[in-house]
């Protein structure tokens, strides 16, 4: 269809787990391809797209450190996991003829580009999808914080959190039939009620810069495009 959007530049954050399908671990190529198609349908609307993908489908720093690994080393392993996910997404997008750059917070020139803000902005202006990898490049952070940081740096109008549920609920909708979805909610309410939107430091960074967070379901085919066109159900987190 001819769906239109008022958005010019957005950041899509997905967890690593969104890429593992039903496998319980790692990458499930058909799932990566399905999400790439969702991204393409938004790219086709002329929207400039940033992406941040987590690494939890491969490795989480906290898990490693719980098993006796040094925390910072474990976190670097987590960051490397996000690079693998970013490369998988790049490959799936390029299969759909979408020009893509993987941009890593930790330089690894043979694999992808280093993060240089002005260069990334230029890629976006040329309608290349920028996948920001390796989180913030620092241990003790998460890819939610990386997503908020990059969305601010790239002047995105909002962060779109692609989840397996269509918004923020007062309790887990997979466990409680009477869970109620919020249409909108403030950053402070999310923090006070410990709602699982993002980790607290990421929410605070979004709040301090007035960056709206849109929580929506990526399981809904055409959902991402629909939300950008103002349709469908989602929760908007704002000031
Ligand atoms: N990580 C990190 N610094 C960052 C981003 C990520 O140390 O700026 C590490 C951290 O160990 C984390 C792992 O990378 O557990 C994977 O990222 P995350 O847990 O955010 O992935 P998701 O839950 O979104 O799949």
Automatic annotation (TrEMBL):
It comes from Parasulfitobacter algicola. Belongs to the UMP kinase family. It comes from the Bacteria. This is Uridylate kinase. NCBIfam families: pyrH_bact. The keyword Ligase does not apply. It is found in: Cytoplasm. Allosterically activated by GTP. Inhibited by UTP. Catalyzes the reversible phosphorylation of UMP to UDP. Its main location: cytoplasm.
């Amino acid at each position: 269809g001819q769906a239109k959007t008022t958005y010019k530049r957005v950041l899509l954050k997905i967890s690593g787990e969104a890429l593992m399908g039903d496998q319980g671990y790692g990458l499930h190529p058909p799932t990566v391809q399905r999400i790439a198609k969702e991204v393409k349908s938004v790219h086709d609307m002329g929207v400039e797209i940033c992406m941040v993908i987590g690494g939890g489908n491969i490795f989480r720093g906290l898990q490693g450190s719980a098993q006796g690994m040094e925390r910072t080393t474990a976190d670097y392993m987590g960051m490397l996991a996000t690079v693998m996910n970013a490369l998988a997404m790049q490959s799936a997008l390029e299969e759909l003829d979408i020009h893509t750059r993987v941009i890593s917070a930790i330089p690894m020139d043979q694999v992808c580009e280093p993060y240089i803000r002005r260069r990334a902005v230029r890629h976006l202006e040329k309608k290349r999808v920028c996948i920001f990898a390796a989180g913030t490049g620092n241990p003790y952070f998460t890819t939610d914080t990386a997503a908020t940081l990059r969305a601010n740096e790239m002047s995105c109008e909002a962060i779109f959190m692609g989840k397996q549920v269509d918004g923020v609920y007062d309790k887990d909708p997979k466990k409680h039939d009477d869970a109620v979805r919020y249409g909108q909610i403030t950053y402070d309410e999310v923090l006070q009620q410990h709602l699982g939107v993002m980790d607290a430091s990421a929410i605070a960074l979004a709040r301090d810069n007035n960056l709206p967070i849109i929580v929506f379901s990526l399981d809904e085919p055409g959902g991402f495009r629909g939300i950008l066109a103002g349709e469908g159900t989602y929760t908007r987190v704002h000031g």
